[in-house]
UniProtKB/TrEMBL annotation:
Molecular functions (GO terms): acyltransferase activity, transferring groups other than amino-acyl groups
SUPFAM superfamilies: Acyl-CoA N-acyltransferases (Nat)
Keywords: Transferase
Entries under Pfam families matching the protein: Acetyltransf_3
Protein name: Acetyltransferase
Keyword Isomerase in annotation: no
Annotated ranges, domain N-acetyltransferase: 30-147
Organism: Aquimarina aggregata
Taxonomy, superkingdom: Bacteria
Length: 174
């Protein structure tokens, strides 16, 4: 995957982040509702990215961008969120621009990032909450060594107001 790299989002990249979200807004609004709501305009996105930089410093949120090395465009996001330092554990979420789906980019990016964040932050557990309708994300989780731990019923409300079940996948590091 030398054509792609993964690095933390910075405020200076607000325009690239806005473009990625804006071009994928309709397909992201249900399961990346917070991000979509905070990036309606470029100005909103700049403000949101400034808040994100604070969260990175506080070690409460780490958004990693998947970057196409050839075009320098952001083509995806892997976010490390809902961090509980008492264990320590975190949740991973990811998406990729629709033009890059099905090419193994998310799997390769997630796999590399997992190794990096476990080493850097000492996470003992990573988890993914995934809709049972999202077969591609389920495949990435399973291929990355996550195991289905169960289904959390009525766990998430989409932007359309639908309350849905989420599959809970976990990966332990000892």
């Amino acid at each position: 995957m030398q054509d792609f790299k993964v690095e933390l989002l910075t405020k200076s990249n607000s325009d690239l982040f806005f473009h990625l979200i804006d071009t994928n807004r309709n397909r992201l609004e249900d399961f990346f509702a917070g991000t979509v709501a905070r990036t309606l305009t470029l100005e909103d996105t700049k403000e949101y990215c400034a808040e994100i930089e604070t969260k990175i410093k506080e070690k409460t949120y780490f958004p990693y961008m998947i970057i196409d090395q050839k075009t320098k465009m952001f083509i995806g996001l892997i976010d490390v969120k809902n961090i509980d330092w008492s264990i320590p554990k975190a949740e991973l979420g990811a998406f990729i621009d629709s033009n890059f789906e099905g090419k193994g980019i998310v799997f390769n990016s997630v796999s590399g990032l997992i190794d990096e964040i476990v080493k850097e932050h000492g996470f003992k557990k990573l988890l993914c909450r995934i809709s049972n309708r999202n077969s591609r994300s389920i495949n990435v989780a399973l291929k990355s060594g996550f195991e289905l731990e169960g289904t959390i019923r009525y766990d998430y409300k989409t932007t359309k107001g639908e309350i849905v079940d989420l599959n809970y996948y976990g990966k332990i590091f000892k």
